[in-house]
Every structure is written in C-alpha cells, then in structure tokens.
Predict the structure.
Amino acid sequence: MRVVLKYGGSSVATIEKIQKIAEYIIGLKEKYEDVVVVVSAMGKTTDRLISLAKEITENPSQRELDSLMATGEQQSIALLSIALNSKGQKAISLTGFQAGIRTSGVHTKNKIESISSDSIEGYLKNGNVVIVAGFQGINENGDITTLGRGGSDTSAVALAAALNCECRIYTDVDGIYSVDPRLYPKAKFLDRISYEEMMEMANLGAGVMETRAVELGKKFGIPIFVGRSLSEIGGTYIMEKNVALEEKLVTGISITKEIVVTTISNIPFSSENIAKIFSIIDGCGLNINMITQNLNKYMRAELSFSSQLSEKYLLNQIIDKIRADFPECDINLCEHLGMLSIVGVGMINNSGIAGKFFSVLSKNGINFYQITTSEISISCSIDRENIQKAVEAVAQEFSL
Amino acid sequence: MRVVLKYGGSSVATIEKIQKIAEYIIGLKEKYEDVVVVVSAMGKTTDRLISLAKEITENPSQRELDSLMATGEQQSIALLSIALNSKGQKAISLTGFQAGIRTSGVHTKNKIESISSDSIEGYLKNGNVVIVAGFQGINENGDITTLGRGGSDTSAVALAAALNCECRIYTDVDGIYSVDPRLYPKAKFLDRISYEEMMEMANLGAGVMETRAVELGKKFGIPIFVGRSLSEIGGTYIMEKNVALEEKLVTGISITKEIVVTTISNIPFSSENIAKIFSIIDGCGLNINMITQNLNKYMRAELSFSSQLSEKYLLNQIIDKIRADFPECDINLCEHLGMLSIVGVGMINNSGIAGKFFSVLSKNGINFYQITTSEISISCSIDRENIQKAVEAVAQEFSL
C-alpha cells in the first residue's frame, strides 16, 4: 500500500517539528510500503523571501521570484530527509525538476502539466521515503516555476494521482468545519464532505485547502484526508458526493475577510472591450471572484469584480493598463469589504435558500452589495465590520 | 568582448550591496558585450544552512546537505537578477543544472566534469546578463551537488574557460600581497603573480582564492584578475610565469592558522596498510597537507598528516575507521599548531633558501615540527602562538 502525505509550513517550522514529523513517518512505514511526502517551506520562509525581493523593487521579475521562492521548499525537504536518514530510515529529497513535475502558465501561478514519476518509483523501489518539494516544478524552457500560494496541496494531490494512491494533507487544523471555528466556536465538525462542496468552500475563502487540489482529487477520484499534524484523531475525508453524505441544504459558511471590489464605469459597451479588460486581468494573473456587469441607457457598461486585498499590487498593475487603454473610464476601489458565502450540494434542488439567507442578513441590519451565485453556493460582499455578526446569524439560521 | 565576473558572499551580503553590484554591472555593459556573473550565497548563508542540518545530526546525509546548501546561491542569483531587471537591464539567473554544469565525485566536494554552455550562449545572444549560481552543479544521477567551500571561484574560471574569456574575481581584498597584510602590514602588493605561485599560496592557506580555480585557469590559459568589489584601483593578475614577473626568490608567505596534526604510530609496516589508511582519508573527503612517515627498527611505521581544524568532524570519522581496522595503533592529535610556508618560483634554481628560512625561525626561538617541501615552497608546522612573530621575522629576512 502507498500514500502521499503533505505537511504545510507550520508543521515544519522548526528543526524540532521536522524531527517529530520524521519519527511519525517512520511509524507510518509499518503500515504503508511506499511513502511519499510533500513538504512546504518552513514557517514564514516564503514571505521572508518575497520581502527580500520587494526590498529591491515592488515589481520583481516573476521568473526570478519563482526561482527565489522555490529555495524554501528545497531547504525543508533536504532537512526532513537528513532527519529521516539520521534516524535510520533511507530517504531522498527531490526538487520539482528532480521529481519530474512539469508545469505551464504564468510565473508564480503555474499549473501542473504532467508528472513523470519514473524517478520517484525507482527511489521507492529501493526502499526510500521520497520527499518532494511542494509548490514547484519546471516549465518547458527549463525555468523553475511555482504553483501559487498553497500550491503544495496541488503538488500532493497530483502526485497521489500519478502514483494512484490516497493523499493525506496534514495541517494545523483538525479538519473541515461547517464554519471557521475561530469565527463561530459552535461550528459543526464534518467527518466527510464532497469534492464539490469543498471546492466552493476553498474557493470562497475557508482557507484550509487549495481549490485546484480538490478539483484534481475529484478529476482523478483520489480520496483526500485533511487532519491535524501528528494527531491520530479527527480529520475530514473529501470524497464523492454519493458516498460522502446525505444532502444537507447548507453544509457550511465560507468567509473571505479582506476583499477589494473594483468598479469600472463608463465603458463604451462592446463584447470586445469587456473581453479586453478580462484579458488584461488574466495577463496579470489576478484571481477574481464575484463579477457583475450592468449596462446603462447610454450604452455604457459598468463592470465590478472582487479580489483579495493581499493581491492589490497586481490589481494596481491592472488598473494602470486599463487606464491606458480606456482613458474615458472611471475606476473606483472599495476596500472595506469582506465576502460571505453559504455552500451546500442540497441547494440546487431546494428553493427558498437565497431568500432565507438575505432576509437573515437584513433582519440583522447587515447591508450586502454585490451578489453572485453558483449551483451550490450563494455569495455576497458585506462590510468587513459586519462579518462576525453575519456568521453567527447565518450559522444559527441554518443550524450549522 | 565578453567577461565572467565573480562576486563572493561578502560582496552580496545585503540587498543594498546587491543593488550596488547591479549598478556596477550595468556600467560594465558599456565595455563588454557579453557579461556572465557568478555569485556566491549572501554573507553567512551557507554556514547558517549547515548549522540547521547540524541541529538534526552531526553527520547529515551529504547528498541532502548539498541540496540544502545549493539554495543559498539560488537565492543570491535570483535577487541580483531582480535588481538588474528592475534597473532596466535584461538579466536571467541560472542554477547549476540550468547552466549545464555537470559534476562528478563525492557529495559536498564535487569536481566540474563539463559545462554545456548552449543555454548561456542563447541567453547572452538575446541581450541578457547571465547570472550563474557558483559552487553548484548536477551529477549524472540528477542529484544537486556542490564543489566544496570556495567552489564559486572554480565555477567562475570554468565558465570563463567554456566561454573563452577573461575571469574577474571580485572579493573583499585589494588583491594578492606577499604576506597576509592583516598579519604583516608592510607586506608588498603584487600586481602580477604566476599560476604556480598562486596555487601554492592558495593551497597553503592564503585564503584569497581556491587552488582548483587557479589550476583550471592555468590549464586553459585563462587570465584571472583578483580585486576588490566595486573598486577601480588595485587588483592582481594571475597569469603565465614568463609574462608575469622576474623571478624573485621568495614571492610570498602563506599561513594556515589552525591546523591539527594527527600522528598514527605502531602501524605494522606494509604498503597495503599505508595505502588503506589513505583510502580511508580520501573516502571521507578530508583535505590533508603535510604528510610525513618514519619507520622504526621494529618495522613499525609512524605516519603524520595535517588538516584544517575546521574539518575535525571529518577527522573524527577517519580516526574511528582507522581504530576499527588497526586496533593496535596509537593515534595522537596535536591541535595547538599552525602552518607557515614560503613560496616562490625562484626557489627551484637557488640553493640556501631552506637554510635561511629555518635559521631565521630558530634565531627567533620558534620551534618547527613537521617539514614538507615542493619545488616552489617550503612549509613547516609551528606553535600557533608563534605565527605572528614568525611572519614578521621571515618577511624581513626575505624583504617581502
């Protein structure tokens, strides 16, 4: 039997923690014949490296930033391998290129194109625990690439797909709750959740796992376990809907605390213009969530979209380009907002959820602005100061 | 015209220094069409990484230590490239494997086997300053390797040979002096020195440049300039003897402050036994200098050799292995010693130098223990506390 384990940055933040993870892995080798471990960079290493680059310039070369950031994982895998070897367990560390992880896309936000697992299989056959750098790969030019923040989850699930085994993501939370327990301590713990619900939760800001990783798990039917590092209790399985759960109406609440809503008004309306704006956004690699568009009687369009406040440096690049291409447009930013979403596979077959959601907000004096919906979720932007109140009211209404 | 520049760790120790190096390189681009820059890790990064590994175990896996250490240079090259790009100079960073640097040998002490410079040539053709990670490469198994401390000099000279151009090593000293000016402030500055003399100086502890780098320069006839970072004055050219200088008797003094002399006595004498001891030493990768051997009347050999005190962890491994294979031997360490050498291409044709050297030491009450000689050098071990006195006496005697 084989397994892919993944440890996040906080699980390997110190040498002491790395030693404990090494001991845990040696214990697991009794159960699993083949163990592959994906590791993130130690603690805040990635942030520290980015801030070094930012000391030089606000807009560092993205190719070079990738190469710089990738050193964080290269260090943590080498140290974990040193720890395993020193305790008598053969182990070998592999960077993205050594593990055969090919990527494509824009720098700092690459996607995994393929994994040639021959070298991993070879090292496993020789009795090694194989430790792979998460978050990184190599593109067709031979450049070192990264997969975007949280990309180590994606590395782990992609490796589990390539090796056809279970993926166990170890982190600093017990698993998945219906609502972030830091915001709503009475939140219910979920033993199981469907890929679809988890994707909405991840996308909408639950922050426990990267959406792409869950999507990849769904695509290849890889069961994903999420649980606390070094703990034997708790943990949530992310799996197919039909095996996962009876269909609850609303499974969870997801919050993104800091968003910025950009509104571009007075756009001369044509599909070409709107497409051009989105291609500028794509070109800069900004992740946007809620998108809404209106048309006024003078055939001028108004386009709004939300993005993470933490990516405002990308947003600023986009605004400069839009200003250059559409000098007649007005651009306004609203930065005091957060996003609130409810998620549940049952929604699609049940009417009245939206009404109940919005009436509970208005009853509690909480204004909502943009609204977007998917088959299994409803999201809206609200004032950041109202997030706590909104979570409590909605959680009670839907018995989460 | 093209050039390979090399900056050591202290030249890129801070972001501010990296910015200054970037500006200097942009200035150089007016003179040189093609510029390749080899960079070491920032400041004390390599030491910090090694001590992380040592927190886990005294004997870390050498393959993993290589991969860990190589991140230091990957960071500094990415940051220098970010600085150049932000100032409008196209630049690209290449790790050892990206630059096509193939190595062979034991981990942490690899040798450069070959450089396929195609990718570097391609990037140069597109107008890039190409920044290459010093000190590292990749072996035939695809493992990341390092070249040993100071290996960045070797990387730079090997690249200059592959690209057929001059190599300029920038460091935190003005160039080469006849004696380390920190020990003997009246030391003469040398504008030029021959490869051979520099090799002896490097080997014997002058510490300005790696011997292998000078050897490589000699082999491929690459002129090597050594000078202070960001300074336009001073600097020493290392080049062929006949063009370099009139033959002085003694060109310089070289000091290794902290050595340990290991004496193994009561070895049952046979060539096999002595060869076996040296193969144990080679296997652990310890660099040894002075070697002496005596045979007593009972056909028991006594073997002594000196090594750097900083490599005592390797020496301990060797002693354990020798004790296991030769339980009847006595092993003694003498740790309070330093090494003093005089170097000069003129020595070979002039008698009386050795006599002058030893008599000046004894006149000043300085005991010397082991003695070894080469065609252009004489070395001996002395008590560490006498080094300063010995340097002054010998420098005056030979007018250095």
